């Protein structure tokens, strides 16, 4: 099991001992070590598990855990201490730790069981949070987005009755077309909501080709590409990674599809590239020549139902990029809009490939 661990302890000998035990149990894992001055920014990608010494010099381990949890809600925290204390144990669990253990009792098998249990608890908490967010999204759709087409349908039915009573064929034909559009809008909302919810489903992960996932997305986009005379340049080697191929293809379909739909009258031209990024990661970038996203909106663009200014005339539900973020996070990666791009839009997706071992710098 390849995991990312963070050991926070002011004692270098204890850091080494924890690293030794963790690598003995989880040999393919990344072990990061740091002292009390560590911040989330120092670590970068959140660890799967953080072992935090309670007796740090300038701050208690529980206080530091609470600070880090604000940035790492999915990390499983385990509080360690040189001396056993039931009061500390109760306080640790009460304030968000997955478990607590005195250093004198740490051995290979107990540590393995503790970490596996902590990961299971963290995963359960993450799933509950995702389900809560999905329920909120569903409620928003029901309360807001469905009301408009339903009102439209009711109005058009009244108009249809008038047309039928007057035997006005032209009016009936117009109303029928408008009813068709309203039905399409509601269907698109249902499809988009279903796609967003499906990203939490436990689809199997497998070793698959990144290039193939992109190619599958392009096949799905063939009608749109042809209709808009779009040109998509793909410069991606046949990199293989552990992923859910259908979900990864959905991510690229949403991003590339947006690039085509938001061309703003230009002939859509999209460039998809990939390069090795920080150790053990690949960075995929999708750049286009479209209308772009205002800089002040780029961080919010991945929230549900947040559509950029200028998007009113483009068909969409506001869930496409939110779904992309869920897929990226489920794969242990992230997605964001390039903050410096001045023309068009550039979306970056960073995904993990393999993991190594490193040491974080101490902070004075």
TrEMBL record:
Highest taxon in the source lineage: Bacteria
Histidine kinase domain location: 141-355
InterPro entries referenced in this protein's UniProt entry, alphabetically: BphY/WalK/GraS-like, CheY-like_superfamily, HATPase_C_sf, HATPase_dom, His_kinase_dom, HisK_dim/P_dom, HisK_dim/P_sf, Sig_transdc_His_kin-like_C
UniProt-listed Enzyme Commission number(s): 2.7.13.3
Keywords of the record: ATP-binding, Kinase, Nucleotide-binding, Phosphoprotein, Transferase, Two-component regulatory system
Class in the EC hierarchy, top level: transferase
A GO term, aspect molecular function: phosphorelay response regulator activity
Residues annotated with 4-aspartylphosphate modification: 53
Keyword Amino-acid biosynthesis recorded: no
Protein name: histidine kinase
